[in-house]
């Protein structure tokens, strides 16, 4: 059957309906703008659940996502533990106002999309997506195999860390050493089954994350080049043997590996890029999701200024890139300082590469 082409004129087209895209779409639709939220369903990479620090409440409130978090009961764990700077497991109990949040991503993302559609955004399930050179037109192939041309005053790209450079003419401005996240999900009885744990080892650092369904997700953040040199299984096994905390008792092999490199990217196109597509932080900060929501608010502000004639699209895109750059460099300094506080493994590849980083940001 021959596919048909139809047009959809809107004020703003938002590509990607994860936390950043759905939040931007909800803000714009809530302000009375006509918004198309383009969503491609499928398996998502990364952790099943993510943590948010207590200070993220301010961003959740401003973005309107706090209501979703509280209705879904995404409260942080009451106990946290760490093995850092010395081979001792230190456990602490958190007060209620210190617990932060722990978000199950699939449920959270769906709730944010529903919020965006209630605000008036039109959700469109899509496959292939391309953006014209002017940043004013998005051509998509829908789930029903129709070709749809979305004409917009501004385009927001919020398709996450795995966004291909070609979609938005992205180029890496600066990045930290390549990091790989090796993960497995465990079903087990353990005294720390309800405690978040981070632990530094020679091969990188472990994140022991109890999930809402009673299982535990165990992730090793390691150096990508060392993993290629040593081998995935060998590196994982060595990190288990070197652990002091609960990872030491694990027998499982890694089930999956995803790139988790902190990097700043910028687009040469007249579009607005937000979330992990442009500013991906080191997972050690536990602020990736918070940053995605904050950058979505800023992207919505920039898009609205274009639609209302208060800003040229090219200037708004520059403003968006500058916001990301300031945030990324601030987080780079914080992450580097925390990594430098672990002095036991200075000769190991993971730590040598990261502790050698200067604290002065590279110029853009």
Question: In terms of topology, how is this protein built?
Answer:
Layout: E1 5-9, E2 12-15, H1 19-30, E3 35-39, E4 49-52, H2 57-63, H3 66-71, E5 79-83, E6 90-93, E7 101-104, H4 105-119, E8 122-131, E9 137-142, E10 147-151, E11 154-157, H5 165-168, E12 170-175, E13 179-186, E14 195-201, E15 204-210, E16 216-223, H6 224-230, H7 232-241, E17 256-259, E18 263-267, E19 272-273, E20 279-280, H8 288-307, H9 313-340, H10 349-355
Parallel strand pairs: 1-10, 2-3, 2-11, 3-8, 5-14, 11-19
Antiparallel strand pairs: 4-7, 5-6, 8-9, 9-10, 12-18, 13-16, 13-17, 14-15, 15-16, 18-20
Helix pairs in contact: 1-4, 1-8, 2-8, 6-7, 8-9
Care to describe what's here?
This protein has helices at residues 19-30, 57-63, 66-71, 105-119, 165-168, 224-230, 232-241, 288-307, 313-340, 349-355; strands spanning 5-9, 12-15, 35-39, 49-52, 79-83, 90-93, 101-104, 122-131, 137-142, 147-151, 154-157, 170-175, 179-186, 195-201, 204-210, 216-223, 256-259, 263-267, 272-273, 279-280. Helix 2 runs parallel beside helix 8. The N and C termini lie far apart (50 Å). 32% of the residues lie in helices and 29% in strands. The strands form 4 sheets. The chain has an 8-stranded mixed beta sheet with strand order 1-10-9-8-3-2-11-19. It is an alpha/beta fold. The relative contact order is 0.17. It is globular.
The helix-strand sequence is EEHEEHHEEEHEEEEHEEEEEHHEEEEHHH
Distance between the termini: 50 Å
Judged by helices, strands and strand pairing, the structural class is alpha/beta
Number of strands: 20
Estimate what percentage of residues fall within beta strands: 25-35%
Main beta sheet: 8 strands, mixed
Based on CA atoms alone, the radius of gyration comes out at 21 Å
Poorly predicted runs: 359-364
User: Per the principal axes of the C-alpha atoms, what is the gross shape?
Assistant: globular
User: What is the helical fraction, as a range of percent?
Assistant: 25-40%
Give the rounded overall mean pLDDT.
Answer: 93
Spatial sequence of strands, sheet with the most strands: 1-10-9-8-3-2-11-19
Tally of separate helices? 10
């Amino acid at each position: 059957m021959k596919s048909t082409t139809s047009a959809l004129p809107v004020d703003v087209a938002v590509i990607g309906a994860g936390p950043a895209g759905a939040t931007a779409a909800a803000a714009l639709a809530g302000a009375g703008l006509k918004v198309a939220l383009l969503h491609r369903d499928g398996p998502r990479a990364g952790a099943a659940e993510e943590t948010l620090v207590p200070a993220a409440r301010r961003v959740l409130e401003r973005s309107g996502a706090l209501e979703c978090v509280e209705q879904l009961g995404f409260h942080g764990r009451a106990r946290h533990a760490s093995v850092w700077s010395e081979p001792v497991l230190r456990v602490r109990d958190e007060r209620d106002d210190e617990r932060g949040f722990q978000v199950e991503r699939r449920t959270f993302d769906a709730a944010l999309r529903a919020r965006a559609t209630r605000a008036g955004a039109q959700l469109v399930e899509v496959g292939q997506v391309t953006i014209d050179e002017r940043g004013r037109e998005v051509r998509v192939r829908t789930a029903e195999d129709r070709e749809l041309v979305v004409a917009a005053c501004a385009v927001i790209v919020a398709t996450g860390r795995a966004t291909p450079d070609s979609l938005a003419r992205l180029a890496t401005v600066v990045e930290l050493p390549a990091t790989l996240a090796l993960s497995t999900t465990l079903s087990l009885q353990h005294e720390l089954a309800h405690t978040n744990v981070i632990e530094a080892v020679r091969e990188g650092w472990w994140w022991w994350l109890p999930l809402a369904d009673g299982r535990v997700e165990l992730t090793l953040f390691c150096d990508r080049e060392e993993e290629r040199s040593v081998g995935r299984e060998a590196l994982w096994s060595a990190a288990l043997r070197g652990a002091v905390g609960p990872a030491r008792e694990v027998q499982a092999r890694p089930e999956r590996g995803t790139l988790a490199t902190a990097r700043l990217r910028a687009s040469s196109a007249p579009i607005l890029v937000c979330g992990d597509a442009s500013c991906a932080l080191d997972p050690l900060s536990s602020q990736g999701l918070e940053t995605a929501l904050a950058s979505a608010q800023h992207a919505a502000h920039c898009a609205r200024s274009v639609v209302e004639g208060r800003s040229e699209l090219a200037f708004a895109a520059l403003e968006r890139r500058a916001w990301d750059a300031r945030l990324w460099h601030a987080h780079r300094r914080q992450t580097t300082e925390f990594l430098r506080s672990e002095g036991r493994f200075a000769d190991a590849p993971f730590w040598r590469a990261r502790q050698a980083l200067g604290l002065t940001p590279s110029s853009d």
